[in-house]
Write a sequence for this structure.
């Protein structure tokens, strides 16, 4: 049998500031024949997500492969659970071919492997977006952390991204007044005209204090925070008593270059939090991914999409070799909805 040559992207050199194409290196490796219990998969769809920028600094060494999920098809199998032809969602990283040995009886979650869920006719790529980690991040952050009540005001930053766009729409399903912030006129139009946000503003040109005083005069009850930094400071200043913040991301600081010994300084008014009894809870979906409710939530979001209550959009990059460019454009905010790569 002919040996399989796999391609993968590794860290070529330390990323300082915004990533550049020179930070990534495409390398090849020859894969061994399968052993008992192993499968060989070929990537069909791959994802890039903002958290990967954090990993590139905090956990990766030069030469390490970039991590991430993919929808893949089993092309060879010595594992009865995953026969040839099975589509899977696996945390295989930025690579086209993968040998993987599912642990018998082991976990089947977003950090390992699971069979592609019943998409009921929706695109397979959705398993990496609205029906994958971003969609579940939105679902649990809103329903388990913020727990909005009907009539409350929900503010969403990075609202036109893979997570924020789902958050806002679930907020509308829950009866919230939803205010979104994004970075272009096209994105604002999409939020209001297609997704049903009540209001949408361009964070690049916005005077946040004026916007909140003028357009959200009754104050903010819930804030889904994708960006951190000064934006979050202004939201907190305009929150109602017992307001809740779900701290999901801090993309505003991911490319910040710190000098050795420099502390990460985020604007934060402790007095406002005490006086107003505000709560901020940071989270990631790992706390739910080993629970059956993770897949139940996936079905719920899928059904909302099928019912027309949630709309989604993808920014598709064609070609595995263009993953670094897709990642760079994601961090530049050029995507609307989920940034996805068709292998």
């Amino acid at each position: 049998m002919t040996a399989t040559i796999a391609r993968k992207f590794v860290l070529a050199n330390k990323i300082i500031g915004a990533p550049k194409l020179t930070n990534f290196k495409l390398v090849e490796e020859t894969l061994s024949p399968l052993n008992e219990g192993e499968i060989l998969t070929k990537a069909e769809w791959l994802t890039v997500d903002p958290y990967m920028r954090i990993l590139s600094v905090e956990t990766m060494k030069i030469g390490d492969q970039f991590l991430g999920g993919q929808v893949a098809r089993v092309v060879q199998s010595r594992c009865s659970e995953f026969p040839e032809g099975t589509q899977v969602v696996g945390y295989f990283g930025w690579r086209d071919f993968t040998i993987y040995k599912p642990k018998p009886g082991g976990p089947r979650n977003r950090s390992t492997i699971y069979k592609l869920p019943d998409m009921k006719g929706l695109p397979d790529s959705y398993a990496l977006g609205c029906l994958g980690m971003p969609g579940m991040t939105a679902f649990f952050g809103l329903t388990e952390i913020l727990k909005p009540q009907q009539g409350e005001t929900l503010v969403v930053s990075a609202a036109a991204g893979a997570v924020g766009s789902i958050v806002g729409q679930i907020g509308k399903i829950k009866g919230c007044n939803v205010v979104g912030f994004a970075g272009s006129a096209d994105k604002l139009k999409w939020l209001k005209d297609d997704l049903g946000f009540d209001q949408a503003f361009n964070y690049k040109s916005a005077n946040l204090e004026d916007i909140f005083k003028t357009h959200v005069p009754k104050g903010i009850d819930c804030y889904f925070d994708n960006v951190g930094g000064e934006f979050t400071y202004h939201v907190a200043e305009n929150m109602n008593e017992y307001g809740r913040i779900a701290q999901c991301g801090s993309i505003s600081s991911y490319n910040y270059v710190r000098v050795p010994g420099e502390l990460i300084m985020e604007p934060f008014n402790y007095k406002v939090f005490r006086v107003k009894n505000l709560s901020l809870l940071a989270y990631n979906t790992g706390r739910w991914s080993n629970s059956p409710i993770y897949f139940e939530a996936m079905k719920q979001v899928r059904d909302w999409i099928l019912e027309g209550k949630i709309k989604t959009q993808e920014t598709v990059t064609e070609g595995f070799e263009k993953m670094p460019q897709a990642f760079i454009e994601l961090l530049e905010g050029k995507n609307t909805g989920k940034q996805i790569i068709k292998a």
